[in-house]
Design goal:
This protein is 39% helix and 12% strand. It is α/β, with parallel strands linked by helices. The radius of gyration is 26 Å and the shape is globular.
Length: 325
């Protein structure tokens, strides 16, 4: 495990995170427990991932947990409510909360809500951004909120197949940690010939090559696997990439990949329904609590007793006829 990263608030954050995107609810508790055993201490979640309660069952006090506010919670009140729900589902304060996408005309109020959650409610320790471009950040700067509470992280998609160097440099120069998601391109990058050749050269896995590329760029890297063996492999330390390796990997980004990223960015920031539907994330009072899991030592429930038929009331005229004279 590489050393932790120093954030602009003077605290430290583990440099490799375990991502919870697309981890199914019925697997989240087990995946987090396996990841902790493998050595992970940083877990990247979000309201949109819809598995915070399940992931939280395995988190320890030492674990770092990040949440994100989805695009449907674009008002100040809804963003605050989303952070409160995440905290309640986890049963603990949040290490980091991010604005998931910079919704045009609304992301500043969403960030204002995060400032409120940190400075006034004190339910989140740090706040930050996700999927912000340079233009988005400059709009946020004009609001003055950055002077009140600086973002510590901007989480964006970064890999050799989508390397926007100018964007990475911009945020790093502002002392905002860039956290890379999709470093393996959800597995597709592992089949690339350049990546395979570098892996053979160093006798490591293709995933280790791509993770090391991000670490050597000074990024926080967010990885995911449901396989316990690969979880451990992704944390394994090795000497690293040489300059030729880095140059070869840097050259893998194409114009087509940049165009696809731009289309996805515009679609997401325009607003996408969450797993709960098109409106704001429901508050906990609107959500039925999950059924408790039965203990293996609990006795079997007794069968329901047979229903007793109700006693029919005696009509008044019959009661009068039976009465003594």
């Amino acid at each position: 495990m590489p050393p932790p990263m120093l954030l602009n608030d003077g605290t430290e954050m583990p440099q490799i995170a375990y991502g919870l995107y697309q981890v199914k609810k019925d697997e989240a508790t087990r995946c987090v427990a396996d990841a902790i055993k493998a050595g992970y201490a940083h877990f990247d979640g979000a309201a949109f991932y819809d598995n915070e309660r399940e992931a939280g069952r395995s988190l320890t006090e030492e674990c770092w947990y990040t949440t994100k506010v989805w695009t449907t919670d674009s008002t100040f009140e809804d963003a605050v409510a989303s952070v409160k729900r995440s905290r309640s589902e986890l049963g603990r304060d949040l290490d980091l909360a991010l604005v998931h996408w910079p919704v045009p005309g609304k992301h500043v109020d969403m960030y204002r809500a995060l400032v409120h959650c940190k400075e006034e409610l004190k339910i989140v320790k740090r706040i930050g951004l996700s999927n912000y471009t340079e233009d988005d950040y400059e709009e946020l700067e004009k609001s003055g909120l950055v002077k009140v509470c600086r973002p510590v992280v901007n989480q964006i998609e970064v890999s050799p197949f989508l390397y926007r160097k100018e964007c990475v440099d911009y945020f790093q120069e502002k002392h905002i940690v860039v956290q890379a998601f999709k470093p393996l391109q959800r597995g597709a990058a592992l089949q690339n010939d350049t990546v395979k050749a570098i892996a053979r050269k160093h006798s490591v896995t293709e995933a280790q090559v791509l993770i090391k590329w991000g670490l050597q760029k000074g990024l926080c890297v967010c990885v995911k696997s449901s396989n316990a063996t690969r979880m451990a492999e992704n944390l394994k330390e090795w000497w690293g990439l040489d300059m030729d390796d880095v140059s070869a990997l840097d050259a893998l980004t194409t114009e087509e990949a940049l165009a696809a990223w731009r289309a996805h960015y515009e679609k997401r920031r325009a607003g996408t329904a969450g797993p709960w539907g098109p409106g704001p994330r429901p508050i906990l009072e609107d959500v039925a609590p999950p059924a408790p899991e039965p203990s293996p030592d609990a006795p079997s429930p007794s069968p329901e007793p047979a229903a007793v038929p109700p006693i029919e009331p005696v009509p008044a005229y019959e009661a009068a006829a039976d009465a003594p004279a």
